[in-house]
């Protein structure tokens, strides 16, 4: 053969090796568990502490377990598994995230090895023609990842579910006035031990989570209580007038933590697990004095409206464990006090 042909073969081999490097210099990670309303920058900032984040993509819907999810792309990752372990325990809005290597790593489109014209790029031919505009079967990569479908020509469009229009002229709308105060307690123990003058009043209402509502005969009495912090700061973090308070949905979720190895039982570890789902307000403490070691129980405040029932992965000393987190019903109420751990009398 001529020397020029050997030079051409070596040049092709070099291009193939270079293309392989370009395809693998980006690493995708699957991130779940962040609260509703989280912005991309709120994820990017903590995740950037462990490498160069070049892209954060929100799925636009929830996964099959009802969690928000996102794909985060790092550049120039040397060891993907080592980075995955470093990302365990990372938090966003005080909620612990779940980070795993994405099962499907996105590959960059291969460039054609033969010379192409502008007409070829605009009008690819043949059954195996490749498009380089990021579109596949009329879906972009982002749409395909989020599970979006494309309407076919003869496909019927389902009618949208009609909206439920509610009445705004309610008794409670009038009740939430200048004469009503909204307060958040320090803990459930503080709610259960409120002074009788507050707790036993028919005008004191338990809302949800750690929040209480107190209605007074007139706005002057309500303002006097609000201005005198010595009357409430021992029990409440803050007190506001109901007409100036923006009601944000938050509920108490009682969680059973199942399958945690006994050697890892610790209040801090139970809190780390529960913080993935919300803010811990009732920890699983005093473990040494407990007699039931079948499961841990933790109460959290969450904005999630769906029932929590998940299996998650934890890591301890480099070993992975699968544990279950199951929500259960606990009819706790300050007006019907009951211990968090109920023990049946023999």
Automatic annotation (TrEMBL):
The keyword Lyase does not apply. Residues 27-104 form the RRM domain. It comes from Lactuca virosa. One of its GO terms (molecular function) is RNA binding. Keywords: RNA-binding. Residues 101-133 are annotated as: Disordered. Coiled coil: none annotated. CDD domains: RRM_SF. InterPro entries: Nucleotide-bd_a/b_plait_sf, RBD_domain_sf, RRM_dom. This is RRM domain-containing protein. SMART domains: RRM. The lineage of its organism: Eukaryota, Viridiplantae, Streptophyta, Embryophyta, Tracheophyta.
């Amino acid at each position: 053969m001529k020397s020029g042909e050997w030079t051409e073969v070596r040049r092709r081999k070099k291009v193939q090796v270079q293309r392989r490097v370009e395809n693998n210099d980006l690493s995708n990670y699957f991130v779940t568990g962040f609260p509703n309303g989280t912005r991309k920058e709120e994820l990017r900032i903590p995740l950037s502490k462990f490498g160069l984040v070049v892209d954060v993509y929100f799925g636009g819907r929830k996964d099959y377990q009802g969690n928000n999810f996102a794909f985060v792309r790092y550049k120039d990752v040397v060891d993907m598994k080592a980075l995955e372990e470093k990302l365990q325990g990372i938090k966003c809005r005080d909620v612990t995230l779940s980070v795993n290597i994405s099962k499907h790593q996105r590959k960059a489109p291969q460039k054609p090895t033969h010379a192409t014209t502008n007409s070829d790029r605009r009008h690819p031919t043949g059954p195996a023609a490749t498009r380089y505009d990021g579109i596949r079967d009329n879906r972009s990569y982002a749409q395909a990842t989020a599970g979006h479908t494309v309407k076919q020509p003869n496909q019927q469009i389902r009618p949208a579910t009609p909206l439920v229009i509610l009445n705004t002229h309610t008794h409670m709308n009038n009740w939430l006035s200048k004469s009503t105060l909204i307060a958040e307690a320090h803990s459930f123990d503080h709610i259960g031990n409120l002074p009788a003058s507050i707790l036993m009043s028919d005008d004191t209402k338990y809302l949800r989570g750690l929040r209480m509502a107190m209605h007074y005969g007139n706005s002057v009495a309500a303002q006097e209580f609000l201005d005198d912090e010595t009357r409430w700061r021992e029990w409440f973090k803050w007190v506001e007038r109901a007409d100036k308070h923006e009601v944000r949905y938050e509920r108490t979720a009682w969680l059973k933590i199942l399958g945690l190895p006994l050697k890892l039982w610790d209040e801090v570890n139970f809190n780390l697990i529960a913080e993935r789902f919300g803010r811990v307000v009732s920890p699983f403490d005093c473990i040494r004095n407990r007699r039931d070691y079948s499961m841990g129980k933790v109460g959290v405040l969450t904005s999630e409206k769906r029932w929590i029932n998940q299996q998650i992965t934890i890591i301890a000393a480099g070993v992975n464990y699968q544990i279950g987190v199951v929500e259960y019903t606990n009819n706790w109420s300050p007006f019907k006090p009951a211990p968090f751990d109920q023990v049946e009398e023999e």
